[in-house]
Design brief:
mainly alpha
Length: about 240
């Protein structure tokens, strides 16, 4: 029972009110942002297909954020063994896989029109796919890794986090069809609201999903500890 109290006190999920408010903001974003994207200026070279940019780029950024959070939490878990760090790493890895799917699907749809091919194996596509596969390997290691599953997964989380700088800089370091990192800072002022508000509302959505997932993990952990306490009580009786 003491173990259950310790874990519960360590993990302090957001209150229901905060989660509901953030959810309402995210829902409003999904209603507003499509109109901003539709009203943004049409890029002269690529035409309307360029508007995928306003979704693709933010999802890729949230993928990288999820991976960095997973890596940081994994590092803390390896050194301190705190259940809260392990739960954060797990939740962020799951969200990384989710937003990674969004980035890996929207990117080729854009590339098919812009480059004539869905996939070219350029540096940024390859490093992003590797990042997503490492997060998927993290989840598989936790499920099938046996007694050392959490530590094995944490090591994979660190490898995934190390790939984030490669994803970000790959279009600058190597020849690639992807635009380099100078595109966003030089974006036309009329295009910036659609991009940054899309990013903002996706970040709010990410935060809501992370909070809900941590709440579920806290409940699951509490139930496991309660079952163990009941088993100990039955054996003592």
């Amino acid at each position: 029972m003491q173990r259950m109290v310790a874990r519960t006190s360590e993990s302090r999920p957001l209150s229901n009110t905060k989660i509901l408010v953030a959810s309402a903001i995210a829902a409003a974003g999904f209603l507003v942002v499509p109109f901003l994207i539709a009203s943004a200026p049409t890029e002269q070279t690529m035409g309307p297909i360029q508007k995928i940019f306003y979704f693709h780029v933010p999802t890729a950024w949230v993928l990288m954020l999820s991976t960095l959070v997973c890596g940081g939490a994994s590092l803390k878990y390896l050194f301190k063994g705190t259940p809260g760090s392990d739960a954060t790493a797990l939740a962020s890895a799951e969200l990384g896989v989710l937003f990674g799917i969004c980035a890996l699907v929207s990117g080729p749809l854009w590339g098919r029109v812009a480059w004539g091919k869905y996939w070219t194996w350029d540096a940024r596509q390859t490093t992003t796919l590797l990042l997503w596969l490492l997060l998927l390997a993290y989840l598989l290691a936790r499920k099938y890794g046996g007694p050392v599953a959490k530590k094995l997964a944490a090591a994979l989380g660190l490898f995934a986090a190390a790939d984030v700088p490669l994803v970000y800089a790959s279009a600058t370091w190597w020849r690639t069809l992807h635009p380099n990192t100078s595109v966003v800072p030089t974006l036309a002022p009329a295009m910036r609201p659609a991009l940054y508000l899309s990013l903002l509302f996706l970040l709010v959505t990410w935060g809501v999903l992370l909070a809900v997932r941590l709440r579920l993990e806290s409940i699951r952990t509490g139930l496991v500890d309660l079952e163990m306490a009941l088993e100990d009580a039955e054996e003592a009786a």
